[in-house]
Design brief:
- The protein has four helices and six strands.
- The strands form two sheets. The protein has a three-stranded antiparallel beta sheet, with no helix packed on it. The protein has a three-stranded antiparallel beta sheet with strand order 4-5-6.
- β2 and β3 form a beta hairpin.
- It starts with 14 loop residues before the first helix and ends with a helix.
């Protein structure tokens, strides 16, 4: 009899803001390159907007539409034995980390995450391939609680 996978909890909603800020940095680079392309095209006598309009459309998509869609396809669950992390739409990845394989745990926060009070939980597991599992977009308090729960489970395990 196969066990049913646990229900996955969504990430903290503030993670959408983090994704938008990260995307805005990429969009800014795209628009800057398009601006340079517009100058070159203008010097060659071509009409305005050939590079700028598509770049602006892409930038708006990247900042406004893509982040909530990416956010919607993330989830995680923690039970007494394992951590489940799932993400992706086209290629769905569901990673199961047995608690007994965790060697150490990190919490990371970049500047945008600190402002939004979001953290990424990073588990380092035994093994070489796929030995690093990340759960981004957790509220700092939630990430600390998950980290502490995993640490207690490791300390009480018979290994």
């Amino acid at each position: 009899m196969e066990a049913t996978p646990p229900s996955l909890a969504p990430l903290d909603r503030r993670f959408v803001t983090v994704l938008r800020w990260r995307s805005a940095i990429v969009a800014l680079a795209i628009v800057a390159v398009a601006g340079m392309a517009e100058a070159i095209l203008y010097d060659r006598g071509l009409p305005n907007g050939l590079a700028g309009v598509p770049a602006l459309a892409i930038a708006l998509w990247i900042v406004l539409v893509a982040p909530p869609r990416r956010f919607a396809h993330w989830g995680f669950a923690l039970d007494d034995r394992e951590l489940h992390v799932a993400h992706g739409w086209l290629t769905r990845v569901h990673t199961i980390v047995p608690i007994g394989r965790v060697q150490h745990i990190d919490l990371t926060q970049g500047p945008i995450e600190r402002v939004c009070r979001i953290a990424t939980l990073v588990l380092h597991t035994a093994g070489t391939d796929h030995s690093l599992v990340s759960v981004p977009g957790l509220a700092r308090e939630q990430a600390e609680a998950v980290r502490d729960r995993i640490r207690r489970a490791i300390e009480s395990s018979p290994w």
